[in-house]
Amino acid sequence: MPGEPTLLRSRQYQVADTRIGCPPLGHAVPPFRGRHVAKAVRATGQNVRRAQANTHSKKDNTMRKSLAAALLIATAANAAYAQPGDDANRQVSGVLGLEAHATKEVEQDTVHITMSAQEQGADAATVSRNLTQKANSAMSVAKGQNAVQVQTGSVSLYPTTNRDGKITAWRGRTELQMTSKDFGAASRLASQISNQMQMDGVSFSLSREAQEKTQAELTQQAIQAFRDQAQSNTKAFGYSSYTIRQVQVGANAPMMPRPYAMKAMTMSAAADAAPPMQLEGGKTQVTVTVSGTVQMK
Question: How far apart, in Å, are the Cα atoms of 284 and each of 23, 108, 123?
């Protein structure tokens, strides 16, 4: 039939249109379709690259602006910080450090006496009882006067063993501590109780009242010495006046009393009261220090 070839071509055309995604049936296929597709692909790639370039450019601009702002803030902070620092550096050139001392030797006015008693026996209870009796007897004598402060010290009780570790005896020791500013009264009390307890050690110290009084006196002297040094050094450096920037006042701590060990008396000598001992406290140093800095003008 005359129309059949046309119909067949139309169907082929339709199939071809379906495979390659051409325009709907009945429309003519544009010539050179492959070239248009390639051109469109190239155009798309160029657009993508332009978009990426624009994105990087915007990021770079943002980073540059952030860095510039940070630099401005840092510069302003450094400038603000440097201004007081420069003033301080200018002041340091006229700062002078000084230290002055005032020292005095004073008599130690307090005596400390240690009395002790020792016992040994086969029974721990007996040794402990004998030590308690001696300590109580000494305390009863001490309570009869008010010039000496007496208090119990350390008490110890321990066994003596042989090579096999068996206990063969018990030993014990008890102490009394006496403190007084009246050296004569302390020495007489030690003599009175020497038939019960022996003198183990003697030491001397400066009382708190004497220490505070001496420090107050020396503080005024040390402060005046500091001012004198500041004035003389200011003139020596060519300045006319000064102001105190910083100052500290300190005093040395009193030395702790060190007991002087006494030679132990024999049992026969301890039977009778020993004569009173002449006590001399000796001297100790008290020092006050004033240190600081001054600004010369």
Answer: 121, 6, 47
